Amino acid sequence: MSAILQDKTIVVMGVANNRSIAWGITKSLHNAGAKLIFTYRQERSKQKLEKLLEKNDIEPQMVVACDVEDDDSIKQAFQEIGETNGTIHGLVHSVAFANTDELQGEYADTSRDGYLTAQNISAYSLVAVTREARKLMTEGGGIVTQTYLGAERVVPNYNVMGVAKAALEASVRYLAEDVGKDGVRVNAVSAGPIRTLSAKGVSGFNEKMSVIEEKAPLRRQVDQDQVGDATMFLLSDLARGVTGEVLHVDSGFHIVA
Ligand code: NDP
Ligand code: KAL
């Protein structure tokens, strides 16, 4: 039997280091036989990524800069990807940002600028990259983004990011309708708390982690590899009937009152 993602080319956005959710996804996609293209924003992330790829014997098809705040950067990245690789079959969007001062206190105090930044990088970016990526998805394929329970419920400190994730999840549904006619599926994974660079230093993170072990049905932490395998499933033909969906990979925490 051939590997699940044999002959599939997938673009992965959002590896900053070995703790990144996108790195867990990379390992799952690589093990499933996919050819991988990476995008990064900061030079530092590129260097970390290249070291990681080398250490793990993963040969990338391409590593290209892409700042999702900038339409020209997105256009250029996907044009280069198209010119070098032709058709792609998948896209992983694992990117989010809000200013630290908006991730504490009351949501009611969110500034206009802080609101727009969070929406811009964390939600609109999926719309912008889907528009470019679909041009290269001539054989159909899958797009998967990363979200969090704070989109559905009020989670202390998540604040402006919760509202951005709500927009992201709604975008998953609207985009799924648009690109479905071309055989492209759009889904999200809603992960439980995982200690990553983004999560570092934001208040309330440690408590959120410990509650999973106490209250979630599986009574254990979520890790990058679990999210990686679920994302791999959603990108694969095994999920060919699934689109517009938010799949919780959270030890079942979201079902508990
Ligand atoms: P990381 O810090 O590892 O990854 C965040 C990534 O976002 C970085 O690679 C960063 O790139 C990238 N990024 C930020 N701004 C931009 C931009 N303007 N253009 C391009 N890339 C950008 O954290 P995670 O792996 O935790 O986060 C990945 C996703 O998972 C996010 O959407 C997050 O909301 C989501 N998530 C995380 C959970 C957790 O508990 N960790 C739980 C549920 C969802 P660079 O460093 O190069 O700027
Ligand atoms: C309730 C939770 C506790 C934490 C609250 C808010 C978390 C927000 C996530 C958001 C992505 C964090 C940031 O944007 C951090 C940023 O302000 C500073 N960090 C950086 O700039 C680093 C260097 C770069 C790499 O980070 C980014 N993002 O570019 C939520 C927890 C339980 C679950 C989490 C962490 C969810 C999530 O969405 O990440």
| Whole-number tally of structural domains | 1
Which ions, cofactors or small ligands are bound in this entry?
NADPH dihydro-nicotinamide-adenine-dinucleotide phosphate, Kalimantacin
Shape: globular
- The ordered H/E elements are EHEHEHEHEHEHHE
CATH superfamily: NAD(P)-binding Rossmann-like Domain
Largest sheet: 7 strands, parallel
Proportion of strand residues: 5-15%
**Terminal Cα span:** 43 Å
Number of helices: 7
Task: Summarize the structure in words.
The chain has a single domain, classed as 3-Layer(aba) Sandwich (Rossmann fold), CATH 3.40.50.720. Helices cover 42% and strands 15% of the residues. The protein contains seven helices and seven strands. It has a seven-stranded parallel beta sheet, sandwiched between helices. The longest helix has 25 residues. The protein is globular, with a radius of gyration of 17 Å. It starts with 8 loop residues before the first strand and ends in an 8-residue tail after the last strand. The mean pLDDT is 97. Bound molecules: NADPH dihydro-nicotinamide-adenine-dinucleotide phosphate and Kalimantacin (KAL). Kalimantacin binds next to helix 6.
Produce the secondary structure layout.
Elements: E1 9-13, H1 21-31, E2 35-40, H2 43-55, E3 62-65, H3 71-85, E4 90-93, H4 112-136, E5 141-147, H5 159-180, E6 184-191, H6 205-215, H7 224-235, E7 246-249
